[in-house]
Design a protein that fits this description.
The chain is an all-alpha fold and 418 residues long. Helices cover 77% and strands 0% of the residues.
């Protein structure tokens, strides 16, 4: 006699990405492959050089670089609704397709300067689509916080390696043919989109409506950036916003325009950033077991500030290499350090906070690149470096002074940031 089929429908554990879903390991592997391939930025180290060689001028070239971050920031206002409507897999595939279209527009210089503007907007919008679901997906596919944190740390290490190798290759290839680096990056986007189809029909968790208690806690925390998620976001936005502006815009200008190094050496020098970031990302979790987070936080801020001071005071090769390495150490440790600071939040909430954090970083990066571009274009490179160092130092001092002695793990504080 056959066993009757239960009338009760499967519970949430059997939904795609749920705790009882046997396809979850396969989806995690597909997400891991997607994240690595999508970071094959063959064009990124030479993007400023590409724009500068088209006689756009330093200020306009830096503004075009900033347009990417601005687009990411603006797109963040509606990507959440798109995620709800279409789901993560669709957004990853669509985002990579849009990024590829943008890269082809830039690489072919179709339409002249307006085409470059359109290409940067498409690239930024495509990244915003993928970034809105990429980090939250890890929390959905792996609900265990400790395992999710390990996955993030391991993936980040591999990402730095992919960025480094593709960047060096891009700089070497760029010497012989400029278009090829953009074609390779576009091909990586297409391959990543294909990998994303293996994630399956996963849906991100919908945040529950806040109760009276959580609403009160959120209201109390809103506008207060002196603890919990707000403090870690402030740190991440400040440090990464300035460090990435220096890596993408300032250092390429100093090396390519002021020092006039060869493109091969240019690519190798920029790879120092990724090597340092890779090493520190692999060691941050171990250091957190024996060193206080406050000390590591201060060390990362000091590394970035010292890097900018070195770039402001010398153009000799050895100090410049040291400056790039320090910048990589500071920027590379910021993400795992921040994720540790947010580790008590549940997976979906932490993913949403991470998305918000990246959007704000895009706005900070935009501001620093535009203002810095104006300064570089006017011939005030040392002032730009000193000013950027001062921003990191002052903001870092404020964040450290405001940091509570014990870390707050309140999800309500994260909800107040949305």
């Amino acid at each position: 006699m056959s066993t009757p089929t239960p009338a009760t429908p499967p519970g949430p554990d059997h939904a795609p990405g749920g705790a009882g879903d046997t396809s979850r390991p396969r989806a995690l592997r597909a997400l891991f492959v997607y994240r690595l391939i999508s970071r094959a930025y063959f064009h990124l180290p030479v993007l400023f050089a590409f724009l500068y060689l088209h006689h756009l001028g330093t200020a306009l070239a830096q503004t075009l670089l900033a347009l990417y971050g601005f687009t990411v920031m603006v797109s963040g206002t509606f990507t959440g609704r798109l995620t709800t409507a279409f789901g993560p897999r669709t957004l990853l595939v669509a985002g990579e397709s849009v990024k590829a279209a943008g890269l082809l527009l830039i690489g072919t210089v179709a339409g002249g300067t307006p085409g470059l503007v359109a290409g940067q907007i498409l690239s930024g919008f495509g990244y915003a689509l993928t970034a809105s679901v990429e980090s939250p997906l890890v929390g959905v596919l792996e609900p265990d916080r400790e395992r999710a944190s390990k996955i993030q740390a391991r993936t980040q290490s591999w990402i730095f390696a992919v960025v480094m190798v593709s960047g060096i290759a891009g700089a070497v290839i760029f010497q012989h043919t400029r278009l090829t680096v953009f074609l390779l990056s576009a091909l990586a986007c297409a391959t990543a989109a294909t990998a994303a189809t293996g994630i399956g029909p996963v849906r991100l968790a919908t945040a529950p409506k806040p109760t009276t208690t959580t609403a009160t806690a959120a209201a109390a925390a809103k506008g207060s950036w002196t603890g919990g998620a707000g403090l870690w976001i402030a740190y991440y936005v400040c440090l990464r916003g300035v460090a990435l502006a220096a890596f993408v815009g300032f250092i390429p200008y100093l090396l390519f325009v002021r020092t006039k190094v060869s493109l091969a050496l240019f690519g190798i020098l920029l790879a120092v950033f990724n090597v340092a970031a890779l090493l520190v990302a692999r060691w941050t979790a171990r250091l957190l077991r024996t060193t206080s987070a406050a000390l590591l936080l201060a060390a990362t801020l000091a590394c970035v500030a010292a890097s900018l001071v070195l770039l402001a005071t010398t153009s000799h090769l050895v100090p410049v290499i040291l400056a790039i390495a320090l910048l990589g150490l500071g920027a590379g440790a910021a993400r795992p350090l921040t994720q540790d600071g947010l580790s008590a939040l549940d997976g979906p909430t932490r993913g949403k906070v991470t998305v918000r954090m990246e959007q704000l970083t895009g706005s900070a990066n935009t501001l620093v690149l535009v203002l810095g571009g104006l300064g570089l274009g006017a011939g005030h490179a040392p002032a730009v470096m000193w000013g950027s160092a001062a921003v990191v130092a002052v903001a870092g001092a404020v964040i450290l002074a405001a940091r509570p002695t014990t870390r707050t793990h309140s999800p309500a504080q994260a909800q107040a940031l949305n």
